[in-house]
Amino acid sequence: MDKTEKIFMEVRKAGRNYLLETEAKSVCMEYGIPVTKFKLAKSEVEAVKFAEEIGYPVVLKIVSPHILHKSDVGGVIVNLKDAKDVRDAYKKILENVKKHKADAKIEGILVQEMAPTSTEVIVGAVKDPQFGPAIMFGIGGIFVEVLKDVTFRIAPITEEEAREMITEVKAYPLLKGYRNLPPADINTIVNILLKTSKLVMEHQEIKELDLNPIMVYEKGAKTVDARIILE
Ligand code: ADP
Ligand code: MG
Hints:
The chain is built from 7 helices and 10 strands. By secondary structure, the chain is α+β, with helices and mostly antiparallel strands. The protein has 2 domains: about 35-115, Dna Ligase, domain 1 (2-Layer Sandwich), CATH 3.30.1490; about 120-230, D-amino Acid Aminotransferase, Chain A, domain 1 (2-Layer Sandwich). Helix 3 (about 45-55) crosses helix 4 (about 85-100) and helix 6 (about 160-170) packs across helix 7. The mean pLDDT is about 95. Adenosine-5'-diphosphate binds near residues 36, 61, 69 and 115.
C-alpha cells in the first residue's frame, strides 16, 4: 500500500469521506505537486515554534473535520509577521470557531508559509460516472467564480492536452504577464496538471479534488489550499 492509500484508509477509519487540508497536501506532496510548507500545531507555544522554523510571514488556519470552509468561520488569518502576531491569531481563530461552531472537533492549528500574492490558478478533478475522472483548469478569482472560464479534459491527459487546456481559457493572456503580474511559469502548471491526472487515475476512489488557489510565479508555484473528497 502506498502512502496515499494509507492516508485514505485513515480518513475512512475516522468516518470521513473528505480529507483535512493537512492530509490533502500530504497527498499532493506524494505526487510532487508543490504546496506551501505546513506544520500542525497543538498549542500556542508550538505554533510560534513552527512559525519560526517555517519563517515569517506565516498563515494560521483551523484544522477541523467539521469545518470545510475555513475562512467562513474566521478560521484563516494571513500575514503574521512575528511571535506576537502568531499568538494573537491562534487565540482569535479558536475564539472565532467557538462562536460559529461551538461543538467543532479541533485537530489543531495549521501554521504555514505565506505564499506571496501572484497569479492564481485552479486545478481540479471530478469523477464523471460515465467517463471517469476529468481534469479541470482555470485562472483564479472572478474568471472562475463569475465567468466560469474553465476547461476540462477526460483523464489521463497528455502533456499536449495539458498545454491546450492552459492556452484555451479566455484569461490565458494574464499568464503571459499583465500590469504588476509577472509572467507565469507555464511548465510548472503543465506539470501540476499531469501529476493531478496521474493521482486521480491511480486512485479512482477520489470523487473530487480541488487545488484552489495555486499561486504561480515566474519560477515555480505553490498550492495554498487543497481539498479531496472520496467516494
Ligand atoms: P478556505 O477553507 O476558506 O477555502 P483557504 O485555505 O483557501 O481557506 O484560505 C482562504 C484564503 O486565504 C485563500 O484563498 C488565500 O487567498 C488566503 N491564503 C490561505 N493560505 C494562504 C497561504 N499559505 N499563503 C497566502 N495566502 C493564503
Ligand atoms: Mg480555499
